[in-house]
Fold:
Amino acid sequence: MRRSSIVLLVVGALLLAAAGVLRFAVYPQIDRLPSNYDRTATYSGSGSFLNPAAIASGNAANALLIDQPVTVTRRAKVTGTSGSTAVVSDQLTARLRNGTTVLSNVHVWAIDRGSMDAAPAPGGASADPHQGLTIGFPIGVQQRTYAYWDAGTQQAVPALFQRAEAFRGRSADVFTVTASGPLKDPKLLAALPASLPTSVLGAVASLLPPNVQSLLKSLGPALPAALALSYTSTTKLTGWIDAGTGLPLDVRQQQTVVAGLSLAGTTQPVLPVISYSIENTNDSINQAVHDATSAGVTLTLLGVTAPLVLLVLGVLVIAWAVWAALRPRRRPAASAGVSGAPAGGPRAPDSPDPPAGAPPV
Structure:
């Protein structure tokens, strides 16, 4: 085999190996939640929020902040990784227009970096127990029902696929989530009063439903010093999820937490202590679309385009090497004078001998 063919075979093999390494070694390292993931989504809307300080002081006029413009930020940041598991800090903060913080909550999730589902926390790390998706969908999201973790009720509920549609130049899958039940989020419960002192009932009675007011009057002196409070939570969510990267492009969410008073052996719903309706701001949507586009280009380049180009080049180079090796060699041309002919041209025939007896010329 010619030396040039051997060189071409080696080059072709290296190109094929590079294609395999890129697709099956490098790509799986980026086809998952990155270790430097740090994303903040901003929402705007309006809401009503309990003012615990006003209730404690008997200030009924300010006990409930009703229909206030609110800005909500949610920051999800990977704080550590161990193999295929990421530990993620998920912080939500709601502020009124004057800067007053009316809601603040932080969860820590242990997430499988590929499926985005729950994973065991790595050794030495602590995480909130959960099941299903929390901060987003996996890369290459499928048009099916996923399990989604509702932190308020501490239960996994269905994230139902509704439809696929174009969204600002991206292909998006629309999912909806509905969750309802007793409020069980320990961090949110810690921020709400566990009981209502009977001494402040008169100040806040006007906020209570008529049937509860009547029941309180009928009980009168039999009321305890403090009435136990319980809470129920209802969340509705619609998300436009980027079909390629799994990033949320736009999310619209409503949550209502209703307080209930324990009266005469029953729990009476009294008033919403948290109620808001929010959606991503335009700037937040634009940033999400930009992030999804950039991530999509990288995924396509390293997962499809580059491996395919290297594969085709490798096959072509190997084919060229085989063709060059099998191609017949040319024989060298004959050199002058080898046949015995004079250099000046063909040799003239010898003159015949004269016949016997002929006179000499």
User: Anything to note?
Assistant: Residues 282-326 form the longest helix (45 residues). Residues 124 and 309 are 44 Å apart (CA to CA).
